[in-house]
Amino acid sequence: MKAAPEAQKRLLDLAALDSQLDRLAHRRRTLPELAEIDERSKRFAKLATEVIEAETEAGDLAREQAKAESDVDTVRARADRDQKRLDSGAVTSPRDLASLQSEITSLQRRQSDLEEVVLEIMERREAADARVRDLVAQRDEVAAGLTAAEGGRDAALGDIGKETDEVQGRRDALSGEIPADLLALYDKLKAQYGVGAAMLHGGRCQGCKVALSIAEMNRIKAAPHDEVLRCDECRRILVRTPESGL
To answer: Which of 160, 182, 145 is nearest to 43 (CA)?
Structure first.
């Protein structure tokens, strides 16, 4: 392939712009906010699940407490009713009196046992409610941090986007100054090797950093100025400049 030396030198400017675009793309992919958002999102999802589980447990205990308190009320009401019958004197039979007193005693024991159950459930419920409050506070804190990280990400992406558009505009303009066939070769090599063209500087390819042999340097010296050369090592376009050491 043939191309004017000036057109070939423009490939170095194009490569520099492409390197900028690659760095910007890398910055976009590796923003610290992205890792933070990922970590906080996972933490938020975990806490949200734990909050639901804790609220479910607290709700179950609230219903269990309400049932136990209802059982206490039922036993207490029955014991009060029996006590009123006993106090009224309506029961006169010694056998019936003994049975009624035995039932009252049994109901009092039952009430005492149920009240212990209520206290035990209340303690568990208080602990469950405290856990819900703690988890909700943690979840809200993580959510606030997640929102802040997302804001930081969006701001950073906006800055990167503006810079990318500016560099891409310069690249587009420069591409229009390069012959189509030379540009097509450059783009093909860039897709394959990451960099499509490199300067020959001091007898060394700046793409792969390999020093060329004396024979290769002599071949390059003898090549026409408009011949498009390739590095034997990395296969990139090798651009000659006054610093090439020829």
So the answer is: 145
Beta strand pairing status for 204-205 and 197-201?
antiparallel
Alpha-carbon distance of 197 to 114, in angstroms, equals 86
Of 215, 208, 194, which is closest to residue 238 (Cα–Cα)? 208
Helix (H) / strand (E) element for 22: namely helix 5-29
In this predicted model, what pLDDT tens digit does every residue of 37-54 receive, in sequence order?
Answer: 999 999 999 999 999 999
Paired residues of 2 in beta bridges: 227
Angle at 153 between CA 147 and CA 155, to 5 degrees: 105
- Please say whether the beta carbons of 33 and 156 come within 8 A: yes
CA distance 228 to 239: 8
* First vs last C-alpha separation in the chain: 21
In 3D space, the residue among 12, 13, 11, 6 whose CA is nearest the CA of residue 226 turns out to be 6
**Which stretches of the chain drop beneath a pLDDT of 50?**
none
Six token digits for residue 41: 């999102």
Q: Looking at this protein, which amino acid is placed at residue 44?
A: F
The predicted structure's pLDDT at residue 93: 86
| Environment class of 180 (CB within 10 Å of its CB; exposed 0-12, middle 13-18, buried 19+) | exposed
* Pair of tokens at residue 116: 């212990």
